[in-house]
Amino acid sequence: MTAISSSGGIMARRLSARLWQVAVTLFGLLLLTFFIGRVMPVDPVLSIVGPDADQSTYQQVYRQLGFDKPLWHQFIIWLGGLAQGDLGNALLTGRPVAQDILRVFPATLELATLAIVIGAGLGIPLGVMAAARRNGALDYVVRIISLAGYSTPIFWVGMMGLLVFYAWLGWVGGAGRLDMSLDGAVPTRSGLIVLDTLLAGNMEVLRSALNHLILPAALLGFHSLAYISRMTRSFMLAQLSQEFIITARVKGLTERQVIWNHAFRNILVQLLTVVALAYGSLLEGAVLIETVFSWPGFGSWLTGSLLLGDMNAVMGGVLVVGIIFVTLNLLSDMLYQLFDPRTRS
Q1: Which pTM value belongs to this model?
Q2: pLDDT 10s digits, 245-258
Q3: Closest listed residue to residue 213, CA positions, set 98, 90, 309, 117
Q4: How far apart are CA 308 and CA 48, in angstroms?
Q5: Where is the ABC transmembrane type-1 domain positioned along the sequence (predicted)?
């Protein structure tokens, strides 16, 4: 009983320390973003009233937005709204920021999830096989793919993908999430178009959704594949040069057992971080791909809000991004303890 209570106390202290770190990190991120946003050379009042408005109208809107107050006071007011679940209204749409985020985020979630499945599902085995056949033909092919995927501008790849697979070959759908004729054909429940069409049982809309989703997801997946395969190869090469690998081979284990049961298991913890960071970057918003494919996602929404000087929307978006990365880090830590018993002590 004493050991159990001691272990529970340690876990409670760890959890409270981690939550405190998360709170401080998010507060610092929001504080920095708020003050940087206020000194940006973009006037959100002009975005509302227009350049032809008279001075009295400008001053009225200026005061309504609270810009006449000191910066610290504006930040305190925003934090007070946040404590009540109010992120303010977006200048671009006039709706609550939380509503806008809930509207655009599922599109990015759907795109990013399929992309990371493609990137990790192909990148990890390719990286492992490249390391196992170092300086062989497969290794050179994987290294070339990684270099190409990592260095080629994603917006150019997106435009070339549309040109080849949509305009020339007609294998995939074009821009947007659905054909225009099918827009609104199924009720929006989750915001995930594939899931909503499955729930509605509309196979025509499902085919259209998949046709529009597969190309941008594959291109983002290729970009993630380049990073994940490169890191996997590096981790595996470091493991394959260790003495325990030589010992395993001397014992008569097959090469497959040596690679997957011994070397690969030792890099799982490192790969969790790599995949989590790649997924977090995709969830943050693949702005260029979303722009090229007219994908109404979180990244394009946040970029448009930033260019407009809409700090309510930007602050809400930054908060979401911070929560995404903090959550992925916490999940990574939990999985560390699952795969690596040494981290449990």
Answers
A1: 0.83
A2: 888 888 888 888 88
A3: 117
A4: 10
A5: 105-336
